[in-house]
Amino acid sequence: MQPFKTHTGVAAPLDRVNVDTDAIIPKQFLRKIEKAGFGRHLFHEWRYSDYEGTKENPDFVLNQGPFRKATVLLARDNFGCGSSREHAPWALADFGFKVIIAPSFADIFYNNCVKNGILLARLKSQEVDEIFAFAAKNEGGAVSADLPSQTVTAGGRVYKFPMDAFNKECLLKGLDAIGWTMQFKDNISDYENKMKSERPWISRV
Predict the structure, then answer these.
(1) Which of 47, 11, 36 is nearest to 121 (CA)?
(2) Which residues are within 8 A (CB) of 68 and not within 5 positions of it... i.e. 6 or more apart?
(3) Are 116 and 90 in contact (CB under 8 A)?
(4) DSSP string, 134-152
(5) 141 burial via Cβ count (<10 Å: 0-12, 13-18, 19+)
(6) In the prediction, which pLDDT does 172 show?
(7) 201 and 165 in one domain?
(8) Taking Cα atoms as reference points, which of 16, 105, 21 lies closest to residue 62?
(9) Position 1 in a domain
(10) How far apart are the first and last CA of the chain?
């Protein structure tokens, strides 16, 4: 996982509330266990008018002009609700999204995104409205996110978003749960050796 500090990119406005994980990545595409390749199925039932995904829906935002290469996603309340499938952030990341801005996110989805290097910025509903308005007036306009200062900048306005210290440090260092644990591998090894010495019967088992 790559460390996240700052990112600037085209912002795609997805003006829908309660977008669930089955909309983000439908269940029929969950057979693979590797992370790569899910981007082509992102929002599949909205992006395509046929089951096979060969006919684009021209009304869907990611099929329009500069939004095809968007790396910032603007969303509405309760984004990522539904199942706990980690495939949802896999699909978003594989498509190219680095930042998602919304008033609220489902908790499990939020944590899964952090573990996959995606920054989620919670802003007030009014602030999100302002960024949507900016995106509408400036199609292809860039939005910036700065994790160290916990700010989003759009159209010259700066917005502050909250983030707990642990998730922030994981993103800044590019660490998922395993990576975080491996920081302490020497301590873990020392403890295991100590247990082998003090309680040898454990290692024999």
Answers:
(1) 11
(2) 62
(3) yes
(4) HHHHSTT-EEEEETTTTEE
(5) middle
(6) 96
(7) no
(8) 16
(9) no
(10) 36
pLDDT digits (tens, 9 = 90+) for 98-112: 999 999 999 999 999
Choose among 69, 91, 70: nearest CA to 19: 91
Q: Are residues 25 and 80 in the same domain?
A: yes
Structural tokens at position 114: 């952090």
Amino acid at 46: W
Residue 60 is part of which domain span?
Answer: 6-174
For 68-124, how does the pLDDT look when each residue is reduced to its tens digit (9 = 90+)?
999 999 999 999 999 999 999 999 999 999 999 999 999 999 999 999 999 999 999
For the entire predicted model, the pTM comes to 0.89
203 and 136, same structural domain? no
Dihedral angle at the C-alpha atoms of 18, 81, 131, 138, nearest 10 degrees? -80
* Tokens of residue 136, six digits: 């509408």
For residue 37, the 8-state DSSP code is: T
Residues 108 and 199 in one domain: no
73's tokens: 């996603």
Residue 50 and residue 32: Cα distance in Å, rounded?
21
Q: What's at 20, amino acid-wise?
A: D
What mean pLDDT comes out for the span 123-132? 98
Longest dimension (CA), the chain: 70
